[in-house]
Design goal:
With about 350 residues, this protein is an alpha/beta fold. It is built from eleven helices and eleven strands. It folds into three domains: about 45 residues, no CATH class; about 140 residues, Rossmann fold; about 120 residues, Rossmann fold (3-Layer(aba) Sandwich), CATH 3.40.50.2300. The protein starts with 12 loop residues before the first helix and ends in a 7-residue tail after the last strand. Pfam families: LacI, Peripla_BP_3.
Length: about 350
C-alpha cells in the first residue's frame, strides 16, 4: 500500500521521474503500487519520492479518479457532526468516553482534507438546514461522532453525502461504521485474567450502560469464557443503577458473590468503592478495566486508541467519496479494531 500523504507539495511527478531516470507514467504507477511496475522499482521510486518530500494533491487524485469513473469531483472539507445538548458536550472533559475527533482530524490532514465540527443541536438548526449548509459549502463527506446517552438516531439528507459513523451509539440509519471490537477486547482481558489464575471473575457495569450494543458484546465475551469454568465460578454481573447508593449496592453484590477479580467498564468508580470498603487491590481483589483511557492511574486493562478509530473512520469516508458512494448503504460495512492489553498495578503478575 502506498504510504504517501495527500497534502500539497511543490515536488511534481516530473521531478521524481527525472531523478529516478524513468518516465512520468512509471512514477505515477509506482506511487499507486500498481503491479505493472516491479516491486523493486516501485520501492525505489517510493523511497525517492519520500526523500524529496512528495505529497499527493487530493484534488488532483480526485480529478483523475473522476475522469476514470465519470463521476463528479468532491471537495476536500469533511464534516464531523455531533448532537449533544451543548456544542462541545462530546469532548472528554465532560464525560469519560472516547474522543475520536483528534485522530480523525489528524488523519484527515494527512490525506489533504480539513475536518470541521458541525453541531446539529445548535439553536435554530434543523437536519434540512445543516444539510443545505454542507451542500452550499461543497462538503460531501460526513463523519458522525458519538451520540449522547439515550440517543440512537439523527437525521440528515443522507442521500447527498458519503457517510461514516464512529462507535456504536448511532443505530438509525445504519451507516458504514468504525468501532472498537468490544468482543475481542473483552476476550483479551479475560484471557489474561484466567492465565493468572483468577476464576471467580465478576463483571461490573460501573456506569450507565448508555450503549447497549457495546454492553451486549462485552457480556458476550464474558459469558463465553465463564461457561467453560463451571458452576462454582459463576458470578452474576453487577449493573449500575442511577440514584442508588453505589457503595451500599456494590457491597451487597460483592458479599453475595465473593469475586477474586473484577472486569469493569470504568475503573475509577470501582476503585473508589473498593477503597471505601477497605479492600486492597490487587491483594484482595484484582481490577481490570475495559476502557483504559487513564494510563496515569496505573490500572491493568484494555486500551483501544480513539485516535486510531477516528483515523480509520476518515480513511473509510475518503474511500466512499472517491468512489462516489452516497446515502444510506444497502449493505453497511463495519470496521472493528480490537484494543491492546496494558499491564498495570491492579492485577497480580
Amino acid at each position: 500500500m502506498s504510504k504517501f500523504r495527500r497534502v500539497a507539495s511543490t515536488v511534481a511527478l516530473e521531478d521524481i521521474a527525472r531523478a529516478a531516470g524513468v518516465h512520468r507514467s512509471t512514477v505515477s504507477l509506482a506511487l499507486r503500487d500498481h503491479p505493472r511496475i516491479s516491486k523493486e522499482v516501485r520501492e525505489r521510486i517510493q523511497r525517492l519520492a519520500e526523500e524529496m518530500g512528495y505529497r499527493v494533491n487530493p484534488l488532483v487524485a480526485a480529478l483523475m479518479q473522476s475522469r476514470r469513473s465519470g463521476k463528479k469531483v468532491r471537495d476536500v472539507v469533511l464534516a464531523y457532526v455531533t448532537n449533544y445538548s451543548t456544542r462541545y458536550g462530546w469532548r472528554p472533559q465532560y464525560h469519560d468516553r472516547p474522543d475520536y475527533f483528534p485522530g480523525a482530524a489528524a488523519r484527515a490532514l494527512e490525506l489533504g482534507y480539513k475536518l470541521e465540527h458541525f453541531w446539529l443541536a445548535e439553536p435554530g438548526m434543523t437536519p434540512e438546514r445543516l444539510s443545505d449548509i454542507l451542500t452550499v459549502r461543497g462538503i460531501h463527506g460526513v463523519l458522525v461522532g458519538r451520540l449522547p446517552p439515550g440517543q440512537k438516531a439523527i437525521r440528515l439528507l443522507w442521500e447527498r453525502f458519503s457517510c461514516v459513523a464512529l462507535g456504536l451509539t448511532m443505530l438509525e440509519p445504519n451507516l458504514h461504521r468504525v468501532a472498537e471490537d468490544h468482543f475481542v477486547s473483552a476476550g483479551r482481558a479475560l484471557d489474561r485474567m484466567l492465565e493468572r489464575g483468577y476464576r471467580r471473575i465478576g463483571f461490573v457495569f460501573s456506569d450507565i450502560d448508555d450503549s447497549p450494543a457495546v454492553g451486549d458484546r462485552l457480556l458476550g465475551a464474558y459469558l463465553r469464557r465463564m461457561i467453560t469454568l463451571g458452576r462454582d465460578s459463576r458470578v452474576d454481573p453487577y449493573y449500575f443503577v442511577p440514584d442508588a447508593d453505589p457503595v451500599k449496592r456494590f457491597k451487597a453484590w460483592f458479599d453475595r458473590w465473593k469475586p477474586d477479580a473484577l472486569i469493569v467498564t470504568h475503573a475509577r468508580p470501582v476503585m473508589a468503592w473498593l477503597t471505601q470498603l477497605g479492600l486492597s487491590v490487587p491483594e484482595e481483589v484484582a481490577v481490570v478495566t475495559l476502557t483504559n483511557h487513564h494510563l496515569e492511574d496505573g490500572c491493568s486493562g484494555i486500551r483501544c486508541e480513539a485516535s486510531k478509530l477516528g483515523g480509520l473512520g476518515v480513511e473509510m469516508l475518503v474511500g466512499l467519496m472517491h468512489r462516489g458512494e452516497t446515502g444510506v448503504p444497502a449493505d453497511p460495512h463495519e470496521v472493528l479494531l480490537g484494543g491492546d492489553w496494558i499491564d498495570g498495578r491492579t492485577i497480580r503478575r
